[in-house]
């Protein structure tokens, strides 16, 4: 009987980097993984952030000042393109290949693109002035809770911080969001009177909101809509009341956090002084 193993059955060479760090720091496996994911570990002088990386004779070091006490959860601000889902839905899971078989690419059903696919190193804004040092672990375990219309673009928040997530969920009714509504043609303040009448009609039970004309020209006008809470479809409903055709919808502010000049499709860190 031939007991030789095929190349594919041979054990992987070396040991996991996390195991080497457990030996160097005399720590648990999870702590070793955190040191690596936080960028404190170098292999032959280069920072490595993958605990599963295998090492043999390479020189492995841990930053002398490495500490797990200051590792922080982050919040990301992303500028969602129109026609993308808002990321509240998870990405489709890939079905693992059966044991002993080669992995076969999984077909993902065609459909709207999920903005979570934009949370990559490549989409990190070059104009991020937060001062936060990028770690691969910052792109994992991110929650979202404030929906944005599929047709709209603008600010979407993702967070690892349970305190931020709790505020956005529990206090959303008191957090104001601001949207820019581009409509066709030149709009005068008088054109908004049907909306003002609806605002005073208690039977409609509309949320408290403010709407005004920001700029107008014969081709296109910009309306500013501010409303507390999450009210999907409100902008469309109000424009229908006034007979206005929406060309574009964009969320530019959520609470005290503004989209600013963040590029479409890019993300940045929430700065230390920013609060929703």
Please provide a written account of the structure:
With 276 residues, the protein is an alpha+beta fold. It folds into 3 domains: 14-62, Structural Genomics Hypothetical 15.5 Kd Protein In mrcA-pckA Intergenic Region, Chain A, CATH 3.10.290; 75-90 and 113-172 and 258-269, Alpha-Beta Plaits, CATH 3.30.70; 176-254, Alpha-Beta Plaits (2-Layer Sandwich). It is built from 5 helices and 15 strands. Strands 6, 9, 10, 11, 12, 13, 14 and 15 form an 8-stranded mixed beta sheet that branches. Strand 13 (246-254) and strand 14 form a beta hairpin. The termini are far apart. Residues 1-7 and 102-109 have low confidence and may be disordered. Residues 15-77 form the RNA-binding S4 domain. InterPro entries: PsdUridine_synth_cat_dom_sf (IPR020103), RsuA_PseudoU_synthase (IPR050343), S4_RNA-bd (IPR002942), S4_RNA-bd_sf (IPR036986). It catalyses: uridine(2604) in 23S rRNA = pseudouridine(2604) in 23S rRNA; uridine(35) in tRNA(Tyr) = pseudouridine(35) in tRNA(Tyr). This is Dual-specificity RNA pseudouridine synthase RluF.
SSE topology:
Elements: E1 15-16, H1 17-25, H2 29-37, E2 41-43, E3 46-47, E4 54-55, E5 60-62, E6 75-80, E7 84-85, E8 113-114, E9 153-159, H3 162-170, E10 176-184, H4 193-200, E11 209-216, E12 220-228, H5 234-241, E13 246-254, E14 257-258, E15 267-269
Parallel strand pairs: 7-8, 9-13
Antiparallel strand pairs: 1-4, 2-3, 2-5, 6-9, 6-15, 10-12, 10-13, 11-12, 13-14
Helix pairs in contact: 1-2
């Amino acid at each position: 009987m031939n007991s030789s193993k095929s190349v594919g059955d041979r054990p992987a060479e070396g040991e996991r980097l996390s195991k080497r760090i457990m030996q160097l720091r005399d720590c648990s496996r999870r702590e070793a993984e955190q040191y690596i994911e936080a960028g404190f570990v170098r292999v032959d002088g280069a920072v490595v952030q993958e605990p599963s990386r295998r090492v043999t004779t390479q020189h492995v070091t841990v930053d002398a000042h490495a500490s797990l006490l200051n590792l922080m959860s982050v919040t990301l601000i992303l500028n969602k393109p129109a026609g993308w889902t808002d990321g509240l839905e998870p990405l489709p899971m890939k079905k693992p290949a059966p044991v002993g078989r080669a992995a076969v690419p999984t077909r993902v059903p065609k459909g709207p693109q999920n903005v979570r696919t934009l949370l990559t190193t490549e989409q990190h804004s070059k104009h991020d002035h937060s001062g936060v040092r990028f770690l691969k672990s910052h792109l994992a375990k991110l929650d979202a809770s404030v929906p944005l219309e599929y047709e709209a673009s603008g600010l979407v928040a993702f967070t690892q911080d349970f305190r931020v997530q709790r505020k956005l969920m529990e206090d959303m009714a008191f957090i104001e969001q601001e949207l820019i509504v581009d409509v066709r043609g030149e709009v005068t303040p008088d054109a908004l009177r049907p909306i003002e009448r609806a605002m005073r009609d208690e039977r409609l039970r509309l949320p408290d909101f403010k709407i005004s004309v920001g700029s107008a020209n014969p081709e296109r006008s910009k309306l500013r809509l501010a409303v507390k809470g999450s009210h999907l479809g409100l902008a469309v409903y109000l424009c229908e009341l006034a007979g206005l055709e929406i060309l574009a919808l964009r969320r530019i502010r959520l609470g005290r956090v503004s989209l600013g000049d963040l590029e479409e499709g890019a993300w940045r860190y929430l700065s230390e002084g920013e609060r929703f």
